[in-house]
Structures are given as C-alpha cells and as structure tokens.
Design brief:
This protein has 267 residues and is mainly β. The chain has a single domain (2-207), classed as Beta Barrel (OB fold (Dihydrolipoamide Acetyltransferase, E2P)). It has helices spanning 49-55, 158-165, 240-245, and strands spanning 2-10, 15-19, 24-32, 41-48, 63-74, 79-83, 86-89, 98-106, 118-120, 125-137, 140-151, 171-184, 191-204.
C-alpha cells in the first residue's frame, strides 16, 4: 500500500526529464504547507503521461492538489519524492490536505532504553520512532521513518502501541502526514531539514489462521445501469498512474538494484 494525497505549492516551473513518441515525464520541486509548528516540507514531484501534458501549464507559485501519488525515499540522499497521481490546480480556499497511507513491515525491535527509538520528555510526552519497509516491486523496497507522539492522557496512545506491539517483521499499515523539522547547525551555521512521517493512525496485520472460512455474499447487486453518470466516464479514466506505468513504481537514482538491508536502519 502506497497512497498519498497532498496540497502543495510549486517553487518552479516543471522541467522535462523524459519524452518519447508516446510518453512525457516532468519534474518539479514543491513545498508542502507546514504541520503545526514544523517547517514547510520540500519535495520533488514527478508526473507522467497525460497528467504531465496538463501539468506543463503549471508555473512557479501555483497551488496544487495531488491525489493518489506514490511516495518514494532515496536512502542515499535521504530525500522524499512523489510520483504519479492526478494533479489539479486549486485556490487558497481549498482545504490543506496532507495524507500518507503506507503498508509494509517494521524493520526493527524497539528498545525502551534506546533514546533514538523511544523517549519520554519532562512535559509528559511519549515519542516512538519506527521504520517501515514498503515493497516497490522487483525484489526492492523503500524504507520510511515515521514517529508517534502522545501524552499519557491521550485516549489513543500510538507511541505506546508501537512500543508494545511492533517488532522486526511486524506487518503494519499506517496513516500519517509528511512533517519536517528544521534547525541551524551550530558548527556550519547551515539550515538543516529532516522529513519524517507523523503517525495519525495504524492497523496491525491480522494474525495468520490455518483455515479460511467460506465467504458468502450478503447483498444482491442491482442490475439496472445508470446512464449518463459523469458523462459516461469511468473511474479508470482518471487513473493516470496505472495507465502510464502499468501499476509499478519507477526506479530511483543511485544504488537501488536490490532490496535494502533491513538491519541498517536509517536513523
């Protein structure tokens, strides 16, 4: 599972990175609005096929809504990027959306004595970091860092759930949002950014069973066809990602020829 819907602002005009007789690919740098007191999130956006043809009219400063993109993470450069999806221009009246849905497996055990993985603050906050391996096809996977932050009084304490129920290899689906911390390096005086996924909710994979119960239909589907709905178009007409790429994910530059070593957690 890899599904992203976000609002963003173009920080440049799209540039062409690939063109053939039947396909076009464009690339553009975007800024996602900040989450709470965080910094805006810079991210690269790649568009393909018919969506790229429409995206060519985008200019610097345009506000965009991107639906159904795929999130990628380059472990070497430690940068996120978005690929595909449906893009449409919006105005400032459009609500700010930032939703990331990922399904995969956790890559580590969480040890409460490791401050990089779990800690509590003097203010009563509980913070837990975990990493999710998400399959990208062809025996490859991306690693995504995500974290949960809660107070002890929260009804849904995701940080505590991560500590108690996730281990290396645990199947997990998360819903979160891209959030970026910013600071100034004390030695170089350079501005530093670190983007992670802030956990909103999660679902653990069900435990395996030895037998599968028979599934019987509970309802009867009507056979009367509705004519003229949305001008006769189907939902598949807007699925630009699958039309352009056959449902797979594009390869990232760098050393991505094989599945990553899950023992090397990028913290």
């Amino acid at each position: 599972m890899n599904f992203v819907s976000v609002c963003a602002q173009a920080t440049e005009a799209p540039r062409e990175v690939y063109t053939s007789a039947t396909s076009t690919a464009l690339r553009c740098n975007l800024l996602l609005p900040p989450v709470g007191n965080k910094a805006p999130t810079p991210i690269e956006f790649n568009v393909y096929g018919k969506a790229a043809e429409r995206f060519q009219r985008t200019a610097k400063g345009h506000l965009l809504y991107i639906h159904g993109a795929k999130l990628r993470f380059d472990l070497e450069s430690r940068t996120h990027s978005l690929h595909g999806g449906i893009v449409t221009p919006v105005t400032e009246a459009f609500p700010i959306l930032n939703t990331v849905i990922l399904g995969g497996r956790c890559v580590k055990d969480i040890h409460q004595d490791d401050a990089r993985a779990f800690k509590t603050t003097a203010d009563g906050l509980m913070i837990c970091n975990q990493t999710l391996s998400v399959n990208t096809g062809r025996n490859q996977a991306d690693l995504f860092n995500f974290y949960a932050i809660n107070t002890a009084k929260d009804k849904l304490n995701n940080a505590e759930l991560l500590v108690n129920f996730t281990r290396k290899g645990t199947g997990l689906t998360i819903v979160g949002r891209l959030a970026t911390d910013s600071w100034v390096d004390k030695e170089t005086k350079e501005k530093k950014l670190n983007t992670k996924i802030q956990l909103v909710s999660m679902t653990l994979a069900p435990k395996g069973t030895t037998t599968s119960p028979e599934i019987k239909p509970q309802t009867t589907v009507a056979t009367n066809e509705i004519v003229g709905l949305w001008g006769g178009r189907s939902a598949d007409d807007g699925d630009v990602w699958n039309q352009a790429s056959g449902g797979g994910l594009p390869d990232l530059p760098g050393q991505y020829g094989a599945a990553p070593n899950l023992d090397e957690v990028p913290f």
